[in-house]
Amino acid sequence: MGSNDKITLEKMSSVITHAGHFVDFYLDDYMGLGLRSSRSSEKIRSSEKGEVWVSFNGEIYNRKALIQSLESIGHDCQDCSDAEIVANLYLHYGEEAFGRLNGKFAVAIFDNIRKEMILAIDKLGEKSLYYTFADNLLLFSSEIKSLLQYEEISAKLNTRVLDYYLCFGFVPPPDTMFEEIYKLPPAHILTYSQKGKFSFRQYWDLEKFNASRFLKEQDSVKEVFEKITESIGIRSENSDELGILLSGGLDSATIAAILRKVLIKPIRAFSVIYENEYYNEIDNITKIVDFLNLDHQIRSISPKEINEKLIRRLVWLYDEPTSDPAIVPAYLTSFFVSKKNIQFMFTGLGGDEVFLGHQPLYWKEPEILECYSDFPPLLKNTIAKLCVPTFEKFAKRINSREIELALDFFNRNSMSDPDPEIRFAARALVRCFSPEQLRFLRLNYKAQKSPYELVKETLRKYSDASFINKEAYATLKLNLVHYVQSVERASDMFSIGVLNPFLDNDLVDFAFSLPVSLKLRGGYTKYILRKTLSNYGLLPKEIIFSKKKRGFDAPIEHWLKSELKEFVQENLLEDRSHIIKYFNEGYLRRIVLKGDRYSALKVWNLLLLKVWYDIYIEEKIRHFP
């Protein structure tokens, strides 16, 4: 906005050719819009008389209801594209139009009447939209690498949020790891005028979250079934080439079961396995496949595939460093599936956040934490010092998730923040270094904005007294965005549409309105979901009531000690230049040489940060070779 330079638009588009081969531009006296897509039908569209122009990236799932609404006010929209639907909705409802959309999207609207550019992102942040200001211009794109094509934008490390990355493994919006480049948060709108004035507004939140919904259990079961079925149905009605990423867990199995047994849709299942048995759920996967009679293919990831070239490719693809190990299987599986003529891929993302699927120790923790938080700081630190070494020894010898969680508990709850509620909510986010550990890791450490402050800001609108609900809200608003966009970015690389039924707006609102007692009961997480599957006979009892849970994880501790060992040592131990100069050499060496699963995520976190810094800041690569 502020320029109609087509050469700049073409440069920005040329660096994201993986998004598709079809390109469209629209230029006006005051601005330029671009769109790159894998579908020739997707173009920049306008309202009927050209009052607004729309560049739309995503999918609208409540198309039928929106078309009916538009036709009732005089529009003929039966053959409208998603962009045209948005254009006409905006023309009539203004910014309120975005709240009417059930879908995933990043959208730019040029209001030709007000001479304003409006940027908006979907309610849960499934799509991404980055922006920056330079030379009195607003530049925006779905990927940061496009913004860096503008010559006046220099890639610089955003030291202000470095602690966020080291603690969380990602940088929450609106910040990014790049100085003066920002990410639009979920359910937000940015408005930028021709005169250079801009404003932000949040257009949606979980308003029902504070409500107490006392449905009878049997009524809740019925509504859960209906809403999940509807969510899957509206996402599967426009494609015959459907796949599902089947992990062996309850969420993806639920989707597969409803597609096969209720909606009677053809579906092809794909699963990831590793040579390391600890990370495989092949037994559960086989039971689900046999029960549902699925067309199933396995993608076995060999350690030999994990190398420097792959790591650099992933870091370039994701724009920012991310310490989520799932980016490796997400990328390799997307490539595998793309060769099978699959257009859309279902995932179970969001099931844990919506129905409380965390490990049992996590939701028993509030009672422990309330007692533990009353201890004097000296006593808490003494207990942590005694317990942590013991659990670390067991963690090295025994593959036990419970030991990992116990170790995590004592590390986290020796933290200095006095508010146990904030610590509990933050525990879903602090996956790598605790804020206290940063004092040992960082040289000349000066505390920036505390991760606890970010959680407090997130929970400011929420007054429910439940520890568990606070954590679920924080996870949905901050953590989930990162995980969903990680999978979204990998699939976009190979022109595969990701479908996440558990993130349906209506389903999320309903699930968050339910009392915790319907989600956690009798030693089971996701109680109401399990009860629904059982009552409708959708899956075998041994799958429904299985407590085994590995998740979409990866054996990074083995990769770091074998295939990536030399790469790690070269980047973290031998190279003291660039980003590594920020860290304490002795502390860094102890973490790297420790070699256990608990330290592996920290090493992975630092390794990807170093590679990102080399590619984007030092080498300033504008096109990946």
Main beta sheet: strand number and arrangement? 6 strands, antiparallel
Counted by DSSP, the helix tally is 25
Number of strands: 16
Q: Say which CATH homologous superfamily of the largest domain is assigned.
A: HUPs
CATH class of the largest domain: Alpha Beta
- Low-confidence segments, given as residue ranges, are none
Return the structural class. alpha/beta
How does CATH name the architecture of the largest domain? 3-Layer(aba) Sandwich
Biggest β-sheet: strands ordered side by side in the sheet: 3-4-5-6-10-11
The portion of residues assigned to helices is 40-55%
Whole-number count of domains? 4
Radius of gyration based on Cα positions? 24 Å
Q: Please state the average pLDDT score.
A: 85
CATH T-level topology of the largest domain: Rossmann fold
Globular, elongated, flat, extended or rod-shaped: what is the shape? globular
Q: Report, as a whole number of angstroms, the end-to-end distance.
A: 30 Å
Describe the structure.
This protein is of the alpha/beta class and 625 residues long. The protein has four domains: 6-202, Aminohydrolase, N-terminal nucleophile (Ntn) domain (Glutamine Phosphoribosylpyrophosphate, subunit 1, domain 1), CATH 3.60.20.10; 214-357 and 471-544, Rossmann fold, CATH 3.40.50.620; 360-470, no CATH class; 556-618, no CATH class. The chain is built from 25 helices and 16 strands. The strands form four sheets. Strands 3-4-5-6-10-11 form a six-stranded antiparallel sheet, with helices on one face. The longest helix is centred in the C-terminal third of the chain and has 27 residues, at 467-493. The protein starts with 5 loop residues before the first helix and ends in a 7-residue tail after the last helix.
